[in-house]
Design goal:
mainly alpha
């Protein structure tokens, strides 16, 4: 039987794989470049992306702003290379998928409150994670193109 989550996770996994492809186009010069003036560097963006699935899961499960700041402070120091970025992104994805796979159908429909006072079900939040990854993949794609990275034919859609 196909779960309602399967197509969402397929799209999330597609985003993750294409993000990893883009990350491998980032060179040392690009890592230190701000994506837009005053914004994150490519390195900071990659670190954020690597933590995103697990961090967003923590948020829907009630983590506070302080807990999230502590989480990012600790883990951002651990992502120091493209290889570690890929490994941390995979770990983050596995944590997200393992958590969702153990939820019962009625739990997927539970409404949860985030620390910034939004209410979503677990299914809604999974779509938020997909959108969040897509947004940052777009930023990374634009940055790689802007800083001269070689992007031959790159598939943005499955």
């Amino acid at each position: 039987m196909i779960s309602v989550l399967d197509p969402i996770f397929n799209q999330i996994q597609f985003q993750v794989e294409s993000i990893k492809q883009l990350a491998n186009k980032v060179d040392i010069f690009m890592l230190e470049q701000e994506i837009y003036p005053g914004g994150r560097t490519c390195f900071e963006l990659l670190t954020h992306i690597a933590l995103l699935p697990e961090a967003d899961l923590m948020i829907i499960n009630g983590a506070s702003a302080t807990e999230m700041q502590d989480y990012y402070y600790y883990w951002q120091k651990e992502v120091t290379s493209i290889e570690l970025f890929e490994a941390r992104l995979e770990l983050s994805m596995n944590i997200l998928m393992d958590y969702y796979n153990q939820l019962e159908e009625e739990e997927l429909l539970e409404t949860k409150m985030t620390y910034w006072q939004t209410r979503q079900t677990y299914i809604d939040w999974l779509l938020v994670i997909l959108t969040h990854l897509t947004h940052h993949r777009s930023q990374l794609h634009s940055a790689v193109k802007q800083f001269g990275g070689e992007i031959e034919k790159f598939n943005l859609f499955e």
